[in-house]
Every structure is written in C-alpha cells, then in structure tokens.
Amino acid sequence: MTEHPKLLQHPRWPRPPACCPHVLLNLPPEKARVTVAGLVLVRQRPGTANGVIFVTLEDETGISNIIVWRTIYERFRRAVIAGRLLRVTGRIQRESGVTHIIAEEVEDLSWMLDDLLRPEEARADGTP
After folding, report:
1. Domain 29-122, classified CATH 2.40.50.140, yes or no
2. Could you say which residues of the chain have pLDDT below 70?
3. pTM, rounded to two decimals
4. Minimal CA–CA distance to 105: which of 92, 91, 95, 93?
5. Distance (Å, rounded) from C-alpha 82 to C-alpha 94?
6. Phi and psi for 30 in degrees, rounded to 5?
C-alpha cells in the first residue's frame, strides 16, 4: 500500500457504482450506502427468519454478510437464488461488532465468471 491507512478513511471510501473491498467495510459510517461484489459462499434461509435470506460474499480481501429482506428477495429473486457472483448495493448496519449490508439492489454478475473461460478474443468486455 502506498498511502497511509488514515488516508483511506472517510470521505474517500468507495461509493456506488464502485465496489467497496470487503476489508474496508469498517470505514463507511452506519447506514451509509455501499456496493460490494463477491463470490457467493453461502445462502441461508432459516425457517424462523420470516422470509429473510442471509448471503455471504467473498472477494479477494475478505467476506461480507448480506441481509436480504423478503421484498428485496421478491424483486431480485433470480439473482439471489441462482447468482454465483453478485454485486449488492445496500446500507451498512453494525451490531455486536459485526457489519452487515442490508440489500437494496442485487445484481447477478455470474456472466463475468463464464467470460473468464472464453478465449481472449471472444470476451464480452474486450479485455485480454
């Protein structure tokens, strides 16, 4: 890292549409709107959770805990259930030392994983 860690604190933390690395989720203030992306490690839908789904995402810096309320699940059902790589925008919530993101939007980016398997000349974004 070339910059002092203090320089990474507010107001320079990434804002949508940029994705915040999971390791920096301690920097945004409570209820700040952030966007994260990562591979889906776990989806949990406990019977006692009243339709809430808990998703754990992982990027190269760590994991993030996503809470998907029923109304958001209904809007983004396909992405929440089938996505292997997700981008989630939501609000930071901290409780008992644990940071969660309360999902407001969920986007399935799984096509990017498929794109990695294609020959360079056939990639959707044109990058090598």
Report:
1. yes
2. 1-17, 116, 118-128
3. 0.78
4. 91
5. 27
6. -50, 135
What is the amino acid identity at position 114? D
Q: Which two tokens stand for residue 59?
A: 């990027």
The 10 Å Cβ neighbour count of residue 80 is: 23
Residues 108-120, buried b or exposed e (16+ Cβ, 10 A)? bbbeeeeeeeeee
Contact 68, 90 (CB under 8 A): no
Distances (CA, A) of 15 to 23, 24, 39, 64, 105: 15, 12, 20, 16, 14
Spatial CA neighbour of 1 closest among 32, 23, 29, 34 = 23
Neighbours of 6 (CB within 10 A): 6
